[in-house]
Design brief:
alpha/beta; 15 helices; binds nicotinamide-adenine-dinucleotide
Amino acid sequence: MHQLEVPLKNNKYTILIKQELSNRFDSMLENIEHYSKIFIVTQQSIIDSVSCNALSKYPTIVIPEGEDSKSISAVESVVSQLMDLGCNRDSLLVGFGGGTVTDFTGFVASIFMRGIDHVFIPTTLLGMVDSSIGGKTGVNNNGARNVIGTFKQPKAIYIDPLFLKTLSKKDIISGFAEIIKYGLIADKKFYNTVKSNFIKLIRLENIDQIESIIYQCCKHKINFFIDDEFDYNKRMILNFGHTIGHAIESYYNYKNISHGEAVYYGMIASAFISHKHGLLIESDFNHIHDFIFNISKVGLNNLDSEKVYKYIKYDKKRMGNKNYFILLNDIGKADIVENVTSDDIKEAITFIANYEYSCN
Ligand SMILES: NC(=O)c1ccc[n+]([C@@H]2O[C@H](COP(=O)([O-])OP(=O)(O)OC[C@H]3O[C@@H](n4cnc5c(N)ncnc54)[C@H](O)[C@@H]3O)[C@@H](O)[C@H]2O)c1
C-alpha cells in the first residue's frame, strides 16, 4: 500500500493507493466522519466495467459520458436529484470515475448548499495521476474548458490500480501523457524509466510498477501545488503542454481527441518553443518529439494553426497583460516564462500540424 498525506494548512487529507482497495471502499467511506448519507456520482460505463461494493450500496447518480457532461445544465440536474434523494449539508458526495466525473463532482460538492464534503475514487489513469488531486473543479462553457470552476479539496482520495484493467487502450495512453509530463517538468530519471518501458507499461503487464508510477506522480503533483494551492506561481508549471493542448481540444470541440492526446501534441509544441528560445538543446528536443510523436494516438488531420491559436486567448494563464508559458530548460526542469510571442506559438502549432507522425 502506498499512502500520501496532502499537508495543506487548512485541509489535510490522505491519498491511498493499493490493488484490491476497492473491496474496502464502503467501510473506508463510512469511517472518514459520521455522514448522514453517502451519494455516488459516476457514469454508466463505469458501473458496467468495474466491480465495487460501494457502487451498489449507496444511492448513485449517473451522469452522461464525455466532455459534454461537464455543463451547468448537468450540474442543475444533479443538484435536483440530490435534493430529491435527501442530500443535505451532512452528506458526503463521492466522485467515482475519470477526470470528467471528478471535475464535475468536485464542482457540485463546492456549490451544493454552499459546499459539502466529497471524496474521489478515480477510475482512469489520468484521474489517478492527475485530475483527482489538487482541488481544481470545473465545468465547461461555450467551448471553453473549466471556465466555470472552484478550488475545493476532497476529504480523501482512494485509488485501486486494478480498475485500469477495464479501461480502453486510448484512455491508458491518454493518462500516460500526464505521467510523461511529470518526467519532463520534474524528474529526468522517471522520464527515462517510463520512456524505456513504455510498451510494457501501456499493456499494464506489471500492475505493481503501475502502482508505483501512480504513487510517484501523486507525489510530484502534491509538490507542485502544496505551496501554491490557487495556481499563481509554481503550480502553473503543471500546465506544461496544456496551453496548446487545450486549444487543440477546443478546436476539435472535445470530440475524437482525448485530453491526453491533445496534451502530447501540446508538449511537443512547447518543447519546440523551448528549443527555439535556446533553453532546450537540440538533441533533447529531438528525443522528446521522436518519442511522443511515435506514441499511438489520433492524428491531427490538417489542423488549421490560425484557428487553434484563436482558442489560446481563453487560456487561464493570461493574467492582466502577461502571457505566461511553461518551457523546458532541460529534460526534468521547467520554468514559467513571459516572453513567448504569438509568432512562437503559431510556429509551434504549424510544426506539430505538419510533422509526419506514425499512427500505429
Ligand atoms: N482537475 C484537474 O486538475 C484536471 C487535470 C487534468 C484533466 N482534468 C479533466 O479530466 C477530464 C478527462 O478525464 P479522463 O481522461 O479521466 O476521461 P473521462 O473521465 O472522460 O473517462 C474516459 C472514459 O472512460 C470511462 N471509464 C472510466 N473509468 C473506467 C474504467 N475503470 N473502466 C472502463 N471505463 C472507464 C469513462 O466512463 C469515460 O467514458 C477532462 O475533462 C479534463 O478537463 C482535470
